[in-house]
Design goal:
By secondary structure, the chain is an alpha+beta fold. The chain has helices at residues 22-27, 32-56, 96-108, 125-133, 141-146, 150-154, and strands at residues 12-21, 64-65, 68-69, 76-78, 119-123, 159-160, 163-167, 173-174, 188-191, 195-199, 211-214, 222-227, 230-234, 247-250, 255-261, 266-278, 288-301, 307-312.
């Protein structure tokens, strides 16, 4: 046997906790214990999924994962004719052709499948919608309409083109695509030290993450919140923003990450598996009961040849 390839993984403590009070249990009209157990369990799943995905994803330059600068997957495919994340438009959606190409690339890289002959595919529901809506020869929908329609009724992808798909709303998405139609200017604006709240006559078509430009608006500013016709922009003011300042908001295409992986794509080191922890009751009247989850683990990309990231938009480009 040849010398194995080593990957350094830094172990990190992960966890979260809540303090359940006796008063809450006694005065609540609902049974709070099952609800709290669900909240803790979902928080653990959300947190661990995010930690692992941060390693898989190609995040902002200089981001640190487990104490090391993250590069994410170096094997990237894009929807449509796009060649970068910033050139993706709303029509560059996920297709069967991309699904076929990705699994073909993994096989060419001699990546070992995850389940039988199938690779793992992690996909956002809004991306999966485009694949399920695809029609015509060579599409996902055709064999399901003419042979087995269970997946259509269930609204799930199942197994397709050499991969088994797992849909999750936790899959990374961000407003990093191409600019879309430009919106209008302000009706009025008020300035503050850390943020500017701008009132528009209409915010139709605007979303959190869209670009903001104008006098007094720092380069790269984006919409951080929308409340009715008020748009909050987190900026560093370079000049006073007044009611007559012309502010332009440019909608940006939302980009979604879809992952395909075989064995050896992601390495995990675990000192203590994430699990639910019931903390000690130190209150003399036993009113305060801590409950949470805890784990010590770390992740790192092990073999790039076994991992592909596909960046696309979605036809339902919502926030």
């Amino acid at each position: 046997m040849a010398t194995p390839t080593y990957t350094t993984i830094t172990l990190v403590e992960r966890g979260n906790a809540v303090l359940v009070t006796r008063a809450l249990e006694l005065f609540s009209l609902a049974d709070v214990d099952p609800a709290i157990a669900n909240i803790i369990a979902f928080n653990m799943a959300d947190s661990i999924d995010t930690v692992a995905q941060n390693v898989l994803a190609d995040r902002a330059s200089g981001s640190i994962i487990n104490g090391t600068a993250n590069t994410g997957s170096t094997n990237v495919l894009y929807g449509g004719t796009a060649t970068t994340s910033g050139s993706l438009t709303s029509s560059d959606v996920f297709t069967s052709a991309l699904a076929r190409k990705t699994t073909a690339k993994l096989r060419s890289n001699k990546a070992i499948p995850r389940k039988g002959s199938l690779y793992w595919g992690g996909i956002h529901p809004e991306v999966a919608l485009d694949l399920r809506a695809e029609t015509g020869v060579g599409s996902w929908r055709q064999p399901h309409e003419y042979q087995s329609n269970e997946n259509i009724w269930a609204g799930e992808l199942g197994t397709y083109e050499g991969a088994f798909y797992v849909e999750s709303p936790r899959l990374f998405s961000d407003k990093t695509g191409a600019d879309r139609t430009t919106s209008g200017t302000t009706a009025s604006a008020t300035s503050a030290s850390a943020a500017t709240v701008i009132t528009f006559t209409s915010t139709s078509g605007l979303n959190v993450g869209d670009k903001v430009s104008g006098t007094g608006i720092a380069t790269g500013a984006k919409v951080t919140a929308i409340d009715g016709t008020s748009v909050t922009v987190s900026i560093a003011n370079t000049a006073a923003v007044t009611a007559t300042t012309a502010i332009t908001i440019t909608p940006v295409t939302k980009v979604f990450n879809t992952y395909f992986a075989g064995q050896q794509a992601l390495a995990e080191a675990v000192a203590e598996e994430p699990h639910v922890v019931i903390g000690p009751v130190v209150d003399k009247l036993m009113r305060h009961r801590p409950l949470g989850w805890y784990g010590v683990l770390g992740h790192a990309i092990y073999r790039q040849e076994a991992l592909y990231r596909v960046e696309t938009s979605s036809s339902i480009d919502f926030v």
